[in-house]
Amino acid sequence: MLFDEPDEQFGLWGRCIGHGGMPETRTRTRDLPRATEGIYTRANWRRVAAKISDGIAIPRATVLEGPNPFIPGEEDKFTPHGYAVLTLDGPKADGTGSRSDRHRNL
Hints:
- The structure is a single chain.
- The protein is built from no helices and eight strands.
- By secondary structure, the protein is mainly β.
- The strands form three sheets. Strands 1-5-2 form a three-stranded antiparallel beta sheet, with no helix packed on it.
- The protein starts with a strand and ends with a strand.
């Protein structure tokens, strides 16, 4: 989940890189509006409206939607999975990530 702006409480630009290896149902993402801005058109990114959850303001965000090829026979039930490796050095961050058979710099 990539935020459009830093969240108010921690100043983070995103959250939920993964679900600890647990499959996530597509129920909440399947019908979200498609993101049409720039780089988001290269994959099936969806827009999530800003909201308040448990008293915490969550900014408008973008999430990856689509099938999960790692769950044979049930690919269409679950969202994509992958991983990210982040290197943090003071105010600098660098990383690589993978989803399915793709690998790229973040």
